[in-house]
Specification:
The chain is of the alpha/beta class. It has 2 domains: 49 residues, Orthogonal Bundle (Helicase, Ruva Protein, domain 3); 124 residues, Dna Topoisomerase Vi A Subunit, Chain: A, domain 2 (3-Layer(aba) Sandwich), CATH 3.40.1360.10. It is 44% helix and 12% strand. Helix 1 crosses helix 2 and helix 5 crosses helix 8. The longest helix has 17 residues. The protein is elongated, with a radius of gyration of 20 Å.
Length: 197
């Protein structure tokens, strides 16, 4: 195999869900593309690094210092959905039935991986709930061991605050990641969320 193709396969296989076989197919597909199309792809990838940042309020991805959701006067700023990653914000928004705001933790608690609560965006969360007058918090972490550990930590951190704490409905399969669900499933889970007591 030519070194240039092999180098591209190695880079493509670093993407989540892309094994060597899929990376190889992608590399050979890209070889068939017109030069302009490859340049557009390369420019889009570079643009991600240059133009995307995290919102200084919620930690979701944004092209501005404050994301459109946090700056919107149309949103319910008393309803806060806590998610692990910025990608989940897009999934919930795609469901179309949530009008609150978000708080992105930037991961989940995982003692095995050395990720503690202090490593996540949690201290700012407590301050934010007080400062912004949040009345309900929806914990929308994954239904995996790490997600459940994070949800329990959040509940213990927030239970003495004057805030209603809810969790997505349990119709979602245990051990699964939210990013694999369609908008309708997420919409149902949001609608049927349960209060944590």
């Amino acid at each position: 195999m030519l070194p240039t193709i092999k180098a591209l396969i190695i880079q493509l296989s670093r993407l989540p869900g892309i094994g060597e076989r899929t990376a190889t197919r992608l590399a050979y597909t890209l070889l068939k593309w017109k030069k302009d199309d490859v340049a557009n792809l390369a420019n889009s990838l570079l643009s991600l690094q240059e133009n995307i940042r995290t919102c200084r309020i919620c930690n979701a991805y944004s092209e501005e210092e404050i994301c459109p959701i946090c700056s919107s006067k149309e949103r319910n700023h008393e309803l806060l959905c806590i998610v692990e990653t910025p990608h989940i914000v897009d999934l919930i928004e795609g469901a179309g039935n949530y009008n609150g705001i978000y708080h992105v933790l930037g991961g989940s608690i995982s003692p095995i991986e050395g990720i503690r609560a202090e490593d996540l965006n949690m201290n700012f969360l407590e301050q934010r709930i007080i400062r912004e007058g949040i009345s309900e918090v929806i914990i929308a972490t994954n239904l995996s061991i790490k997600g459940e550990t994070t949800a329990k930590y959040l509940f213990s951190m927030l239970k003495n605050r004057n805030v209603k704490i809810t969790r997505l409905a349990r119709g979602l399969p245990v051990g699964s990641d939210l990013e694999y669900f369609d908008g309708q499933t997420i919409a149902f889970a949001l609608e049927k969320r349960n209060e944590i007591k």
